[in-house]
Amino acid sequence: SVAGVVQRYTELTGRMPLPPRWAIGYHQCRYSYRSRRELEQVARELRRRHIPCDALYLDIHHMDGFRVFTFGRAYSKPAEMIARLRHRGFHTVAIVDPGVKVDPRFGVYRRGKQISAYIRTGDGRRDYVGRVWPGRSVFPDFLNPSVRRWWGREQGKLQRAGVAGFWNDMNEPASFLPPTKTLPEQCRHHTEHGLIRHALAHNVYGMQMARASFDGSLLQQPDHRPFIITRAAYAGTQRHAMVWTGDNASSWEHLADSVQMLLNLGLSGFPFCGGDAGGFLDNCTPELYARWLQLAAFTPFFRNHTMLGTMPHEPWCFGPEVESVVRSYIELRYQLLPYWYGLFAEAHRTGSPIMRPMVWEQQHDPAAATCGDQFLIGSSLLVAPILHQGAVARSVYLPGGTWFEYWTGRRHPGGRHVVAEAPLSRMPIYVRGGSIVPMIPVRQHTGGRSNALVYLHLWRGGSGRLDWYEDDGESLGYTRGASHRRPIQWNGQSLVFGSSEGNYASRVREWSVVMHNVNQSIKARGVHSGVRYHPPTRTALFDLQNTPVSFCVKMR
Fold first, then answer.
1. Of these residues, 103, 185, 247, 543, which one is catalytic?
2. Predicted confidence (pLDDT) per residue in 243-301, tens digit
3. Catalytic (active site) residue 471
4. Quick check: is 45 catalytic?
5. Active-site annotation holder among 97, 172, 276, 323
6. Cα–Cα nearest to 488, from 475, 471, 501, 504
7. Which of 41, 156, 212, 430 lies at 20 to 30 Å from 189 by C-alpha?
8. Composition of the chain by helix, strand, coil, percent to 5
9. Cα 431 to chain centroid, rounded
């Protein structure tokens, strides 16, 4: 099976660690926010307009002359700035490029020179010097373990200032001078396996940089989950970093391409992946922006980003209608955070993609196998993005089973195509019959409040299972058993909570059940709104074990 192949492949190459919970939220970026003042203004607008967001990014203009691991004058008192942003629920992610400026007065360059940290020319006589953003630059030899350790120590300066994540860019590695735009093939690497030419090292260079960033994060904060983004990768990079798809353009063609790119990444062992929402190059139109953010809200990595010299791409920059549409989908992303987090936990355990092609669960359905413009999130949600300018409807293939329109509740038998209406405010989403979809109230960021109240949305028309998962969302405690797992099963009549596993105490204090597609009242025997069980007694409709929570039933 497709799932079996991916499971065995990731068993061989490795599986992603759990990211910090904030990494699953909405991220706002630009090349570049030119000053501390501009970045803080974006943060204020996001909160003032009640647009949820968890991370803000520092692109290359935050640095002193593009020198890696530095802050320039426009970002004075960076630790103070980062602390203020963190107080408002924003984590800060800094770009880190491999090119180190050739400057004897620059401490990073000088310390690297002292330990022979840089890639050598083909004859081995000198450091290879290329040209990237800082000008004349050398490139750390990340295939050398001692160089990776040195890089991790240098990175610690940013962590001590409060930087929470690292964005590895230009790490193919890119170099502006050669016609190939990368290092010459004859350059030399000193590895633990001896000398090798860059021709043999090129494809793993980006992975080894991500590895240096990941291990360096743990060096400074041994029990904090690292958050590393990489542009270049190789089989197994998922152990160290997530992948974003690089410099796309604000075009309908690139919007459509992103679906295939992300599905392919998921099947290749990279469940945590995403593209630049809105497109990086060129200017987005209001319609394209709305459609792109709708789609991006249902991709594992959700970041808005755009190029130097383009118009602003923040959610409020395309008028009130688009802002309202975008806000609603970002809010939906946050309401679905427990569902997303459970899928990340599944990806960590099994290697399964989070964003799945239709063929993942319908391998012997020829129609599903050829659907490249729609996808599944887990097994319960089917997403059919609008990928063509001016479209207000589209054809959607619903595989076998029963499906419900998320927005209207309309029921459809599977195994056929349907026409879905899609005004600008609506992207077609379907829920599989028998699904259990956990949701929480909207919040402005993932921190602060725990998931004390969880809504379990139940759809009739089949049987389903939810693997509920919780942990603290920050530490590596989950690797030591500090997690809470509980199977929840639904067959259209009975909801059964299985026994919990793990030594993390659940933060849920109330499960509120919302039933969809109910045409007549259902008697919840033994369960009444507001009744608290210590522990709950077994009932015919809701079988609860070892769950010290209050429980209510809502009918919709």
1. 247
2. 999 999 999 999 999 999 999 999 999 999 999 999 999 999 999 999 999 999 999 99
3. no
4. no
5. 172
6. 501
7. 156
8. 30, 25, 45
9. 22
